[in-house]
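Worked example (supplementary).
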Amino acid sequence: MILRKQLNNFVLSWRNSRGFKRTILDVVVRGSRNPMVVIGGTIIIIMVALAILAPILPIADPTLPEIRVEERLLPPSERHWFGTDNIGQDVFSRVIWGTRVSLTVASLAISFSLLIGVVLGLTAGYFGGKVDYIIAGTIDLFWTFPAFLLALAFAAALGASLFNVILAISISYWAGFGRLMRGQALTIRERQFVEASRALGAKNWRIMFTHVLPNCTAPLIVWASIGVADAITIESSLSFLGAGTPPSTPSWGNMLNLGMQFIGEAWWVPTFPGVVLLITVLGFNLLGDGLRDVLDPRMKGMRR
Amino acid sequence: MADLISYIVRKLLLAIPVILLATLIVFLMLHLTPGDPALSLVPPRHTAADVEEVREKYGLNDPLYVQYGSFLWRLLHGDMGTSVTTFTSVSGLVFQKLPRTLELMAIGLTISYSIGIPLGIFSALLQNSATDRGVMVFTLVAYAMPSFWLGIMLMLLFAVKLHWLPLGGTVGGFASIILPTVTLGLGNSALTTRMMRSSMLEVLRMDYMTQLRSRGLPEREVIFKHGLKNAVLPVITVIGLDIGWFVGGAVVVETIFSWPGIGKLLVDSILNDDFPVVQGCILVLALFVVIGNLLADILYAYADPRVRLG
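After joint prediction of all chains, the assembly is encoded as:
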């Protein structure tokens, strides 16, 4: 009873707030009525839970120190749900551990992209003029380039490591957020509350980060969700090509690369990591698409 | 016509900075590599004298802007360096592989459009029906499916299990090209379908459509003669984005099916540390995207006069 009352108070206090908190509340309350958000959100929660719990789950060791000849390329069975790979490692457990790598890389890469995109886009849109001309030009340049090709170029130059993959995706993906943020800032800076706070003597950076930015939360959440889906795809593609996550770390892309080599003898090695990859990407896409419909129906179809 | 020409000139001028950025990124790649850049440009078996020679030849001791200038100068003369594994010129190597990639993309684009456009129209006309829902589920799944996994699955089914089609390479003639192009086309058709559907839905709500109906035109003529013309225009504009998607897809698909195009050359060169070839491939693919976008813009302006004034 007391808990319920506290929860109510909490919801009420957030409902009366504005900007960021209000948007988060909107996401949860209105999102829970949209089937796409619910399905996508459920998939993501399961995946995140698997990623966090991987070390304590009762699953086989994902990496073996040496080849177990008698367990090589075993088909799916009760003991190995997804079968085993060429050195006898359990595919199911590697898929679970791969979730960790994919989700970490994707969410860090999108966080960095968001940071670059938001700061540059906000500055360009808010100040306008020459600043805008230079930044918007840079954003458009990067936007024209296909993110995957750019990420591949950077990953190839920097060498295969987890950190470099995150860096490569961030550098190639931020332009989308920059474009979005600039467009939003351009319209919001004309609103009256911005003028009001300027009249009260607020400094530019204060208006930018406490008034303009919180009003852009909704589209940023939508695009970040779709961005994570894209980043997972880019990471696994890079790893598949051998330019991403180093082969020693279990990642979906590496496992698919390995699966390609044994496609004739072991269909389960390339199949299962891909199924889980597909479901995860689908989850983030569904969440993004659903939230877009819920938060702002006008944004429909504005996707790259 | 004059406005079309000025539009094309404007677009051409805007493409120059993008091309310069592409060259700059490719140039900087060399300096992003860990260690001495000269070591990336010499064959795996080299002497200290070879390294000095390369350093001298590419002016690696000069300031960066001087190096970039001479890099551009060499590019203008078609010199993209020499492969460190095959010792042939990079430009020769790249242009020898380019037609194979173009072939793949052209057929893939055709497949994507011949699935996406009818499917999009169909699902827009039956909005909110079970068919429409089904099509939307198809686009969601096809969009989320990474092209390399789709390729592996198609290969597993049609080449490994059923033995209908060859595993890869080009020896099978026409049969060899089916799997790579279907992989590319299916993935992209999701985008085309979505685009076509939303564009058709928008046109169906337009006043002039109601006006045509009220004049007693048969529904088929209203939709396919008057509606479709306007609805298909935005789908043409995304051909530029599609090309960006296809360039990324081609790299992956060529690797899976050992298709001897630029994408496979690029991946092989990354794995062999053949740095000059990596640079050449990325530059040519990037230029390809820029030119594709330019052509799409011009095509759109030609088809829709309203665009030229913008």
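Two points are worth noting when inspecting this output. The CA atoms of residues 38 and 226 of chain A lie 15 Å apart. The mean pLDDT of chain A is 83.
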